[in-house]
Write a structure and sequence with these properties.
single chain, alpha/beta, 4-stranded mixed β-sheet, binds pyridoxal-5'-phosphate
């Protein structure tokens, strides 16, 4: 899109997440309005939002039920005094969220975003073990390619190389293992590969000394590694391994939560209950900043103490459990449950997956994977040699914007996750835009790969 001189000057006074500014300014995007599955830029051009902003707008943009819930709460109270008490609507939120979580994950602490949730979960687990007579348990194991947030602790748990190395040294006490995709070409079957990757987690816990390991944090479907989708057995094995070594299993469901994978949480899709779930994004549908840490009720009891001692969770954030966010969270959950949007995600996902599989005819798709409406397509230069084709991902990002489509595109894969409210016609429109952009990008990328000096 074309931007004004004023917009350009102002863009130079901020930064766009994980984007190089000069590159961004070659093809900028300044949005002004959103409704349902669409955004409009300041020139009036419409974009299909195939990724809910960034896995956020679960119910689309501007959902009337959510606006109504916000309006009602706004009239009453928009901020509660965090050091003195809690809003009644935040208690309602705790109750409602607790009705849709697996197992006895009923302890809920509301936050303003995903990084606050993962960061808090790690502090919670460290303090939990100190209070449970295991003060030496402090390390967290997580996976290469994983992303758990942009704050210091969450980043230390993340395994996204270039997003981290600029800020090294990272916090100590974090250990990484590889997700199953890393080993897949070494095994005859995906199942076998998953077994190996899960067993590697136990090997690392033992090598580190289980008395030093506090938790294992994992995204049930890993976005930044290219929609890494392990088997259910992988998670069952992780559950058993964590139980054997008294290690807290933390699912980072900041992307996978709230219906996308076919259940409220991916934990239910995989049939494995972790000890802690961190969530955010989809719980807001983009209305208010929100996040939450949901833990086993008995873990929380370790923080009650007696009135005379100093046992408390030594943690807080000013906007945590904000009343407006709580009102939105309740309304999002109600809308998903009442309209069975989690079940709809499975049907939508089947339709969408079939369309994405259709891209195989271009000869550059290695795999289409994911759960429900959280799907990813892995790109290669040639499906026999499996050589990487970064030019394709780079060209695709530009082609999608040109064609009025917002996707999550990485050089070697792209992800799709439309709103659960999208109609069949809207899904078809989105798929047409994806294919149109894909074909254009492939043409461009083939030219660029043959002549690297040509700019895309
Ligand atoms: C899996 C995962 N965890 C944590 C986060 C951090 O959430 P936030 O950006 O809301 O702090 C993200 C954000 O993209 C995420 O994708």
């Amino acid at each position: 899109m074309k931007i004004t001189a004023r917009q350009e000057a102002l863009l130079k006074r901020t930064f766009i997440d994980y984007q190089q500014l000069t590159e961004f300014l070659r093809d900028p995007l300044v949005v002004e309005r959103a409704q349902g599955v669409y955004y409009w830029d300041t020139e009036g051009k419409r974009y299909f939002d195939a990724i809910g902003g960034i896995f956020v707008a679960t119910l689309g943009h501007g959902h009337p039920r959510l606006l109504d819930a916000m309006r009602k709460q706004m009239e009453k109270m928009t901020f509660a005094p965090p050091l003195h008490g809690i809003a009644d609507v935040t208690l309602d939120f705790i109750e409602r969220l607790g009705t849709v979580t697996p197992g006895n994950l009923k302890y809920v602490k509301g936050f303003s975003g995903g990084s606050e949730a993962t960061e808090s979960a790690m502090k919670f687990v460290r303090q939990y073990f100190k209070q449970m007579g295991h003060p030496g348990k402090y390390k967290f194991i997580s996976r290469y390619y994983g992303y758990h947030g942009g704050t210091a602790g969450a980043m230390a748990a993340s395994g996204t190389g270039s997003r981290k190395t600029k800020f090294e040294p990272q916090m100590p006490g974090f250990v990484k293992v590889f997700p199953p995709t890393h080993y897949r070409d070494q095994f005859a079957s995906w199942e076998e590969c998953n077994r190996f990757a899960a067993q590697a987690v136990e090997d690392v816990i033992i090598a580190e000394d289980p008395e030093t390991v506090a938790g294992f944090m994992v995204e049930p479907v890993g976005n930044t590694g290219g929609i890494i989708t392990p088997t259910a057995e992988y998670f069952r094995m992780l559950r058993e391994i964590c139980d054997r070594h008294n290690v807290v299993l933390i699912f980072d469901e900041i992307i996978t939560g709230f219906g996308k994978t076919g259940h409220m949480f991916a934990a239910q899709t995989y049939g494995v209950t972790p000890d802690i779930i961190c969530c955010g994004k989809g719980l807001s549908s983009g209305m208010m900043p929100i996040g939450a840490m949901i833990a086993r009720e008995d873990m929380a009891e370790a923080f009650w103490g007696a009135a005379s001692d100093d046992v408390q969770f030594a943690h807080g954030h000013t906007f945590a459990g904000n009343p407006l966010s709580a009102a939105v969270g309740i309304a999002v959950i109600n809308e998903i449950i009442e309209n069975r949007l989690d079940e709809k995600a499975v049907r939508m996902g089947e339709r969408l997956k079939a369309r994405l599989e259709g891209l195989r005819k271009y000869g550059v798709v290695r795999e289409v994977r994911g759960k429900g409406v959280l799907l990813g397509v892995e790109l290669v230069k040639d499906t026999r040699t499996l050589a990487p084709f970064p030019e394709l991902g780079m060209a695709l990002k530009k082609a999608t914007l040109r064609n009025g489509l917002i996707l999550r595109v990485d050089p070697s894969w792209f992800a799709v996750s439309p709103a659960l409210v999208a109609s069949d016609d809207e899904l078809d429109e989105m798929c047409q835009l994806i294919e149109k952009s894909f074909a254009a990008a492939l043409e461009q990328a083939s030219v660029t790969a043959a002549n690297p000096t040509v700019a895309v």
